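User: Batch of two.

Assistant: Item 1 of 2:
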Amino acid sequence: EKYLNKATSEVVPLVWASYDPNMREFNMMSFAMLLEHFSDELSPECIELIDHTCQLAMEGAVARSKENFTPLNTNIQCMHTFLLDYFGARWNRPDYCEYAIEYAKRVVDKYLQCHSAAEFNSPTYCGVDLATLGFWQRYTSNDTLKELGKILFQNDQLFWTAVSMALFMIGYCTTTSFGTYYFKYAYGDEG
């Protein structure tokens, strides 16, 4: 069994053990913002490379979303929805734009079952969810997607989690700063 597991993991990579399946969406979000805000400063070759990379990534993302729709990946689902719409409009792919609406409706339907998403209670995901829903509002021209995003964005869990995380980070940074100074002045070593 040990050798079978080792052989299998060498041929079929284990999710989270050898790769992060969500990096695709995080990277494409960064590329979308580069294209949106800095395309006039990028060379045509660089823009072409970004587009090509995102096209390959989007093919994989669409395939994954059609076979693995899980309510525990709210941040990735929100990113995926935005990316479908953003790159669908950029590449003149109405199939992506239509799928973005279909996908967003599925995300909202899951949310409306309990008026919550598992990740909205997690400070580590809350910021990503809020930022992505902000992208739905700012960077999409699709009114249906904006309205669906407002349903998720108006969740009070997001607000209180964001406030809690902000207060925690203020306290954490303040305490850490004073700790560094304490060691510097009390012991002569910041180390």
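Item 2 of 2:
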Amino acid sequence: PLNSVGFNSLAPELKGWRINSGSTPSGNTGPTSAFQGLQYIFVESSGSQVGQAAEISLCVDLSNWTIPGMSWNYHMFGAAIGTLDVDVSTDAGSTWTNLWSLSDDQGNFWQSAFVNLSSYSGVVDVRFKFTTVPTTGSPNWEADVALDNVGFTELTLGCTDPFADNYDPLASVDDGSCLYTGCLDPYASNY
């Protein structure tokens, strides 16, 4: 079962992230609505300085899962998007290990991501960290990044596309292994 994180319970610890519904205040960046439900969290980049970071960390006990994982949805749209990192700490935040990183404009839509936490056990901290970058020709306010639907779950990796030959109806996260047979000649009648 997915254990979702409620953003309202995190309000005192948002450290640069804001709870929002609807569009972000800046144009040409950010989502127009939540991925799921009514609220999401985002970083308002207007007025930010180069290299400035917004971070939020979540403490989770992984002992209830065999192959624990964290999944989330992200929205990274804008001409001046920086870098979104996901890090894990086993020492209450003294040191961090990067598990996932993505930079630059990813399009004006919500996307899904996950990290496999099976190499960790017990209580860990997981951090989302967004860092602004220098802009050339684009205003730094076109860099709002948003998160939604953050949850911890037992990972079942496999092909989640029902049209693939190796579709796995039990898979909870697509691992990129989907296979498709058929004619690969675009000029054939059965392409």
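The two ends are 40 Å apart (CA to CA).
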